[in-house]
Specification:
Layout (H helix, E strand, L loop, with lengths): L1 E6 L21 E10 L4 E7 L4 E6 L3 E5 L5 E5 L9 E5 L4 E6 L5 E6 L5 E6 L4 E7 L4 E9 L1 H5 L10 E6 L7 E6 L4 E5 L4 E6 L14 E6 L6 E6 L4 E5 L18 E3 L4 E3 L10 E7 L7 E6 L10 E5 L10 E3 L6 E9 L9 E8 L4 E5 H12 L10 E2 L9 E7 L10 H9 L14 H7 L11 E6 L4 E5 L6 E6 L14 E7 L4 E6 L3 E7 L10 E3 L11 E8 L4 E7 L4 E6 L3 E6 L4 E7 L8 E11 L2 E10 L4 E5 L19 E7 L14 E6 L2 E6 H5 L5 E6 L5 E9 L2 E8 L3 E6 L5 E7 L15 E5 L4 E6 L3 E8 L7
Parallel strand pairs: 16-20, 33-37
Antiparallel strand pairs: 1-53, 2-56, 3-4, 4-5, 5-6, 7-8, 9-10, 10-11, 11-12, 13-14, 14-15, 15-16, 17-18, 18-19, 19-21, 22-23, 23-24, 24-25, 26-27, 27-28, 28-29, 30-31, 31-32, 32-33, 34-35, 35-36, 36-38, 39-40, 40-41, 41-42, 43-44, 44-45, 46-47, 47-48, 48-49, 50-51, 51-52, 52-53, 54-55, 55-56
GO cellular component, one term: plasma membrane
Pfam families: Lgl_C (PF08596)
Family: Belongs to the WD repeat L(2)GL family.
Length: about 800
């Protein structure tokens, strides 16, 4: 996920008087992806291994995500963030690229011979090679055996467009025969041992005058014994062709004689409406079912999801009936790929549950229960009115509402100390993202298994605020986040969680205390009881009843400010709470009451909004002064008397060309802004276009003194946060194009530049929330949640081993 890493040292733009500290060094950092959970962005294609029950999803930027039994997941990344033009072999255990097969010709198809280490490779020039995969280490060896175009076509004149589009080993004879389908429509059955063509079909079909040449776009077997193949074309036609079979078995269809013959007439033409709408056949999958329920899934290659023919499933039995029994599956978007997967039971002799999975144009994954589709088709034969099967959008568990704000509190030490058996049991009961096992349980089992006796036991705590007003607490010590506590909507007589989206969070584990702010300007203070808690299972505090709350919640106080809450901070010495809103209001409360001490509006001609607030005590003109530093959305910095709200000095300081501010932090060298001394402290301001480090003593007096500055040129910054390594402070920056920079403070020297593959940020529209939520712990551990599909966790510092 982190790709194209570069280590660079750059001098700061300005050098203030005095010696600068050594600061953060390249040897202190090692930005890396720790784990990925969910569906990667840019999903483009599927592959499924029925033997080992592994599903693979490839992306447009060179990644492969694997899903297996027991909630196992793995992410493979090629060296270049591009689709591969070459054949690659990956060592799944080591998650490393073992070998790449690079040839001059374009590889247009390949097929692995099941239960073997051999595969066919088809090229654009019509030739076919055979490769063998050798172990220790895994690498590909080209065999002497080939199927040249001249041999497969015979002595006849070779026509144009002989690109190999499909290589299909014949069922029940995989090691003896292989079906080769060329883009021009020619279908050839090749005898492997005798190295000769057994039969030809599909070619020289009559084309209407003045029409484009029909080309093969999809194909699959439609018989368990390899006597029928379904071929789809770019003009929307679907033909079933008869193929000679060594073992017809109970298949009663009349196959072609088993000698070198040529047939140009299909066994059957399926009219599903694709031809009339000029929709190419993008993909086809066939499921064999004894009796009368064998079915063919057909996906049209079209951008219009409203088309009635975008995705269909049709009964395809040995005895074709006069009436076509079919079902149209209609999604909210067009699809780019589909696959049939078989969910395995632990008992090998038991049944396997089939599912249809689809990749939408947006990259979302959808899943259908094939059993419900089969039932619908069977009931349709009796002309009854069965209920339509519904798709399930693949989402992260418990993502019942989108995340709108978050906090991450990670282990302050570099070592994880957990109960291994406890986490093993939780992961065992974790609801699957994509169903590949029939015996996996739902989320309620996980909730009942999770123990929560207090925050001090949770080494990595992730807190999320949601669009429905809910608060969720997660144990983030392993790749699958475990829910441990949930605060849902309450009545006005209880917690008054109103269902309004949460916009800001503040958490202090020493009390412990949680403060939440929402879009309406409501602020809630949750004080928790001393640990350990008497409950030992997942807590969901919901509804108007206070049942269960006495175990954990000591008190809840509700405050009100003007505008959506953007920022909050607490002065521990005075127990004052500062709240900043999107309308430019700064409200300071005494948490003992709670009582509003004062409210001040900071006007802006460009963009109102308070992005950050910091309490600190500093010396001004020989006197100790308690101040509140305010950072606004228009990149202004203002100092207030924290007791009265009066403006200090000559007003605010701001850049000549302000841009939207993202982050502000008071830097004192120790990371404790409340105890900052004016002489050694700085103010860091991060905006979309630049970084600024100001002198604190000058900024408090309203005087602009820039100590360090860095402008961004290639792309805009979309997120920023500071982190600590011992006594040194670092700055993490994420840009809209996925670039990541780690810089030392206060000099802003670039230490590491890298990137997050697949990251694509677009700013949210007014009044809405971004699909991407990011937060960083004080120790440089970053959690990125992209919509409801994926969670990524990164670490910036070296030797951080705090995750299972």
């Amino acid at each position: 996920m982190f790709a194209v890493k570069k280590l660079v040292e750059k001098a700061s733009i300005k050098k203030p008087g005095g010696n600068s500290s050594d600061g953060l060094k390249a040897s202190d950092v090692d930005p890396r992806l720790l784990f990925h959970n969910g569906v990667p962005s840019g999903a483009a294609n599927f592959a499924f291994d029925n033997t080992h029950v592994i599903l693979a999803i490839s992306t447009k930027d060179g990644r492969i995500k694997l899903y297996g039994k027991g909630n196992s997941q793995g992410l493979l990344e090629s060296s270049e963030p591009l689709p591969s033009k070459f054949l690659q072999v990956w060592d799944i255990d080591k998650k490393l690229l073992s070998d790449a097969y690079i040839v001059k010709e374009e590889i247009t198809s390949f097929a692995v011979i099941q239960h073997s280490l051999y595969m066919y490779i088809g090229y654009s020039n019509g030739n076919i090679s055979v490769l063998k995969i050798d172990q220790e280490p895994w690498h590909m060896v080209q065999m002497q055996y080939t199927i040249p175009l001249s041999a497969s076509y015979g002595d006849s004149e070779v026509p144009d467009d002989t690109v190999v589009t499909h290589i299909l080993p014949q069922p029940a004879a995989e090691s003896k025969r292989v079906l080769i389908i060329f883009r021009n429509g020619q279908i050839i059955l090749w005898d492997i041992r005798e190295s000769k063509t057994v039969s030809k079909t599909g070619g020289n079909m009559s084309q209407p005058l003045h029409s484009e040449t029909k080309k093969v776009s999809s194909a699959c077997w439609s018989c368990p014994f390899g006597s029928k193949v379904v071929v789809g074309y770019n003009n929307g036609e679907i033909f079933i062709w008869s193929i000679p079979s060594l073992n017809i078995g109970r298949d009663s269809s009349a196959s072609a004689p088993d000698h070198n013959t040529t047939q140009n007439t299909p066994l059957l033409k399926l009219n599903l409406g694709y031809k009339s709408e000029k929709i190419p056949i993008g993909s086809m999958k066939w499921i064999y079912a004894e009796g009368k329920a064998s079915r063919l899934y057909v996906m049209g290659d079209c951008d219009d999801a409203s088309s009635l023919n975008s995705l269909q499933v049709v009964l395809l039995n040995d005895n074709i009936e006069s009436r076509t029994i079919k079902l149209g599956l209609h999604l909210s978007e067009s699809c780019v790929a589909m696959e049939l997967i078989s969910a395995a039971s632990n008992e090998q002799s038991k049944h396997r549950q089939e599912s249809l999975i689809l990749i939408g144009k947006s990259g979302h994954i959808y899943q259908y229960d094939d059993g419900l589709i089969e039932r619908y088709l069977i009931q349709s034969q009796s002309k009854s009115s069965p209920s339509l099967p519904k798709e399930v959008t693949v989402k992260l568990p418990f993502a019942d509402s989108s995340i709108t704000t978050s906090k991450f509190i990670s282990n302050t030490t570099d070592v994880l100390n957990i109960e291994e058996e406890y986490y093993r049991e939780l992961i065992k009961n974790y609801p699957p993202l994509i169903m590949v096992e029939t015996n996996q349980k739902d989320g309620s089992t996980l909730m009942s298994s999770a123990k929560f006796t207090g925050f001090s036991k949770v080494q990595n705590l992730y807190i999320t605020g949601h669009s429905n007003g809910a608060l969720n607490f997660w144990d983030a010590s392993c790749p699958l986040f475990i829910p441990i506590l949930q605060l849902k909507q309450q009545s006005e007589n209880d917690f008054s969680l109103s269902g309004i989206p949460l916009t800001a969070l503040f958490f202090d584990s020493t009390y412990p205390l949680l403060v939440s702010g929402d879009q309406s300007g409501t602020v809630r203070l949750f004080r928790f009881k001393p640990e350990p808690y008497t409950t030992n299972s997942f807590m969901s505090l919901t509804g108007g009843s206070k049942k269960g709350t006495d175990h954990i919640i000591q008190s809840v106080k509700v405050l009100k400010t003007n505008g959506a809450v953007l920022s909050m901070n607490i002065n521990h010495s005075s127990t004052h709470l500062a709240v900043g809103s999107d309308q430019g209001h700064v409200s300071v409360f005494s948490m003992d009451g709670p009582t509003l001490l004062y409210q001040k509006n900071i006007a802006s001609e460009i963009s109102a909004g308070i992005v950050d607030l910091h309490f600190l005590t500093c010396s001004l003109q020989g006197f100790e002064k308690n101040i509140l530093v305010v950072g606004t959305k228009d990149s202004s910095i203002l100092a207030l008397d924290s007791e009265t709200g009066n403006t200090l000095g000559n007003g605010s300081v701001h850049p000549k060309k302000p841009s939207r501010a993202l982050f502000m932090q008071v830097l004192d060298g120790q990371g404790n802004s409340e105890d900052a001394t004016t002489k050694q402290s700085h103010i860091l301001l991060c905006s979309e276009k630049a970084l600024y480090v100001y002198s604190l003593v000058h900024a408090v007096q309203g005087t602009k003194k820039v100590l360090y500055k860095k402008k961004f040129h290639s792309s805009s910054c979309c997120w920023a946060s500071t982190f600590h390594s011992n006594n040194d402070i670092g700055l993490a920056l994420l840009f809209t194009n996925g670039k990541v920079e780690l810089r030392s403070l206060p000099e802003l020297s670039l230490i590491v530049e890298t990137s997050i593959r697949g990251f694509n940020y677009s700013p949210p529209k007014h009044g809405s929330f971004s699909d991407i939520q990011m937060c960083c712990s004080s120790r440089g551990d970053l959690v990125l949640v992209s919509g409801d599909q994926e969670i990524l966790v990164f670490s910036a510092l070296v030797q951080r081993k705090i995750f299972r």
